[in-house]
Amino acid sequence: MVDVNSVKIIVSLLLFFLIFPFFVLAEELGSDNDENNKLAVQEQQFTAEVQGLIVDRTMTRLGDDFYFFFSQYMNDRHGSLEENLVVKERPTALSGSIISVLHRDKVFYRTALSPGRKSAQDKAKEALSAATNYLLRWKAQREYQDTFDLDRDEF
């Protein structure tokens, strides 16, 4: 025969295992929202402090010359730049380099750079024009982007 006490214990254990996970889930969801809010505030504070950087990731004298001219031209034209850019260089075997300019890990300008200071200066002017056009398009797209149900970085 089945003992009444054992039935009570089994029923109480079943109820415990059915109801307890909901309390844990609700608590975890609340803590996730708090963590997400804290991360969003920290990200806003971080982006508010560091703006307008042009990061130098070049390796050779060619890349250094390009970075020098490009950053000089960018600072002259866009004195209050609010976005960070990266100048990245990949040296090639046949005495030259491939230069890429990135914004938020997206390449918007790439060129082959041959040896010579004049070449670096000309390519930096081309990159300035490309950066100006890209940033204008990017800002306009960001302004008119529908973010009703998704955040801007989730697209």
Blueprint (SSEs and pairs):
Blueprint: H1 4-49, E1 54-57, H2 61-77, E2 85-92, E3 96-103, E4 106-113, H3 117-143
Parallel strand pairs: 1-2
Antiparallel strand pairs: 2-3, 3-4
Organism: Vibrio galatheae
InterPro entries: Curli_CsgE
Function: May be involved in the biogenesis of curli organelles.
Low-confidence stretches: none
Strand proportion = 15-25%
Query: Could you spell the SSE succession in H and E letters?
Result: HEHEEEH
Kindly provide the radius of gyration, computed on alpha-carbon positions and rounded to a whole number of angstroms.
Answer: 28 Å
> What's the total number of strands?
4
Structural class: alpha+beta
Number of DSSP helical runs: 3
Query: The biggest beta sheet, please?
Result: 4 strands, mixed
Widest sheet: strand order?
1-2-3-4
Report the helical percentage.
Answer: 55-70%
Query: How far is the N terminus from the C terminus?
Result: 63 Å
Shape call: elongated
Number of domains: 2
Mean pLDDT value? 80
Function: May be involved in the biogenesis of curli organelles.
Organism: Vibrio galatheae
Keywords: Signal
Pfam families: CsgE
Structure characterization notes:
With 155 residues, the chain is an alpha+beta fold. It has 2 domains: 1-49; 51-143. It is 58% helix and 18% strand. The protein contains 3 helices and 4 strands, in the order αβαβββα. It has a 4-stranded mixed sheet with strand order 1-2-3-4, covered by helices on one side.
